[in-house]
């Protein structure tokens, strides 16, 4: 591929530092819940300007743990239909009932009017997702609606490391924020996740839940229905090295996105509009196809004729159309359906060059014209 869909980036000095740290944990025998995990939590909390960050095994567990602490199982949780499977699955695994809400295709976030209309007597909370790393101005409406209806808000910030709205960072808008370090994410840890919160109780309960519900590391009293949601020390070492590159990675992604914006100024492909007050990490660079274009055929042509791989959509199929959620299949969620059907994600990474961005846009234009 002349332009791959994505690329992870571990500079040589980071690889050396990671290996040195892993060697230290192999020598000490402290392979989980150790000093590196604590260092990662402290640096993540500082970078996200929150008092607490709790490292866990995945972005999925970073969602499920706060949902359990918030006792989501008491009722119904509202989730936007345009998200990854794990957003909805974590709600169900926490014991709550799930209700899908439509999104506004222009913001890719919960449609505030649809959110308000979906609130019922059983609703206890809302999960919002910063799709592609974009936090739109409507986050303020979502916060206001939650506060007015006595609902908690959890942010699925799996895409949004370092993103902000009005200088407020992802992970700080609700009761808790959930981040993922899956290899495709802005920072990669292999596997792993992080919970951010300003709430002392959520933080202390999260420590219990992640370690099999044990009240403390050195006793055997299990006080909560927890699970093995721990992060290992080698994963913490990898993630810490990546976290220290977060600003640099986001700056590079934003540079590529700015180049795409220029190149697409008069294009039939319409980029997502990101207002100045939203600081987007460009986990994805999202653009909308002209009507009638077959996305699969376009992507295939780009791969085969131009050696350009577009990255995966966010998402191709809305959640209520997934087989596993078949009992929601009749729901009318036109915003999510339109968004999922019509967008593409141009490749972005921390190592991509401006020349590659130019090649992507030239290729897309040629493929659309052909
Ligand atoms: C929006 C969203 N939520 C949750 C997750 C789950 O994260 P993980 O794969 O680390 O469990 C992902 C990522 O894969 C995601 O993209």
User: Could you describe the largest sheet, including whether it forms a barrel?
Assistant: 7 strands, mixed
Provide the residue-averaged pLDDT.
97
Question: How many structural domains?
Answer: 2
String of helices and strands? HHEHEHEEEHEHEEEEEHHHEEEHHEH
CATH class of the largest domain: Alpha Beta
**Which kinds of small molecule does this entry bind, naming each only once?**
pyridoxal-5'-phosphate
What spatial form do the alpha-carbon principal axes imply? globular
CATH architecture of the largest domain: 3-Layer(aba) Sandwich
Q: Within the largest sheet, what's the order of strands?
A: 1-11-10-7-6-2-3
Q: Bin the strand percentage.
A: 15-25%
Assembly category: single chain
> Which percent range fits the helix content?
25-40%
Total strand segments: 15
**Low-pLDDT residue intervals, each spanning 5 or more residues:** none
Number of helices: 12
Helix and strand content put the structural class at alpha/beta
CATH topology of the largest domain: Aspartate Aminotransferase, domain 2
Termini distance? 20 Å
CATH superfamily of the largest domain: Type I PLP-dependent aspartate aminotransferase-like (Major domain)
The rounded Rg comes to 21 Å
Plain-language structure description:
This protein has about 375 residues and is α/β, with parallel strands linked by helices. The protein has 2 domains: about 10-245, 3-Layer(aba) Sandwich (Aspartate Aminotransferase, domain 2); about 245-370, Alpha-Beta Complex (Aspartate Aminotransferase, domain 1). It is about 40% helix and about 15% strand. The chain contains 12 helices and 15 strands. It has helices spanning about 10-30, 35-45, 60-70, 85-95, 110-120, 140-150, 200-210, 235-245, 245-265, 295-305, 335-340, 355-370, and strands at about 50-55, 75-80, 95-100, 105, 110, 125-130, 150-155, 165, 170, 175-180, 195, 270, 280, 285-290, 345. Strands 1-11-10-7-6-2-3 form a 7-stranded mixed sheet, sandwiched between helices. A 3-stranded antiparallel sheet has the order 9-8-13, with no helix packed on it. Strands 12-14-15 form a 3-stranded antiparallel sheet. Strand 8 (about 165) and strand 9 (about 170) form a beta hairpin. Helix 3 packs across helix 7. The longest helix is centred in the C-terminal third of the chain and has 18 residues, at about 245-265. The radius of gyration is 21 Å and the shape is globular. The mean pLDDT is about 95. Pyridoxal-5'-phosphate (PLP) binds near residues 58, 87, 156, 158 and 159.
């Amino acid at each position: 591929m002349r332009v791959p869909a994505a690329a992870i980036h571990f500079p040589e000095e980071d690889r050396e530092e990671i290996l040195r740290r892993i060697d230290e944990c192999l020598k000490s025998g402290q392979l989980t819940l150790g000093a590196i995990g604590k260092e990662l939590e402290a640096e993540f909390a500082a970078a996200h300007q929150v008092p607490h960050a709790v490292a866990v095994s995945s972005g999925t567990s970073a969602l499920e743990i706060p949902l359990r602490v918030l006792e989501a199982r008491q009722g119904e949780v509202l989730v936007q239909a345009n998200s990854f499977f794990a957003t909805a699955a974590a709600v169900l695994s926490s014991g709550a009932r799930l209700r899908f809400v439509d999104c506004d295709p222009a913001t890719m976030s919960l449609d505030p009017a649809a959110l308000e209309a979906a609130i019922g007597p059983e609703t206890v909370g809302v999960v919002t997702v910063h799709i592609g790393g974009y936090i739109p101005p409507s986050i303020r409406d979502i916060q206001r609606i939650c506060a007015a209806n006595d609902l908690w808000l959890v942010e699925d910030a799996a895409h949004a490391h370092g993103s902000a709205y009005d200088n407020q960072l992802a992970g700080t808008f609700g009761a808790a924020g959930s981040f993922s370090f899956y290899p495709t994410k802005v920072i990669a840890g292999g596997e792993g996740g992080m919970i951010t919160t300003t709430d002392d109780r959520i933080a202390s309960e999260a420590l219990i839940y992640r370690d099999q519900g044990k009240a403390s590391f050195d006793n055997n009293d299990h006080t909560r229905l927890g699970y093995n949601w721990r992060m290992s020390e080698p994963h913490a070492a990898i993630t810490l090295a990546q976290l220290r590159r977060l600003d640099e990675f986001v700056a590079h992604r934003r540079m590529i996105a700015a180049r795409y914006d220029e190149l697409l100024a008069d294009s039939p492909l319409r980029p997502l509009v990101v207002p100045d007050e939203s600081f987007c990490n460009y986990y994805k660079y999202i653009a909308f196809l002209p009507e009638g274009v077959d996305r699969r055929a376009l992507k295939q042509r780009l791969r085969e004729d131009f050696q350009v791989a577009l990255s995966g959509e966010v998402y191709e199929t809305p959640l209520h159309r997934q087989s596993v959620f078949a009992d929601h299949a009749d729901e009318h969620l036109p915003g999510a359906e339109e968004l999922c059907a019509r967008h593409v994600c141009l490749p972005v990474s921390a190592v991509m060059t401006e020349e590659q961005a130019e090649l992507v846009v030239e290729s897309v234009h040629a493929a659309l014209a052909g």
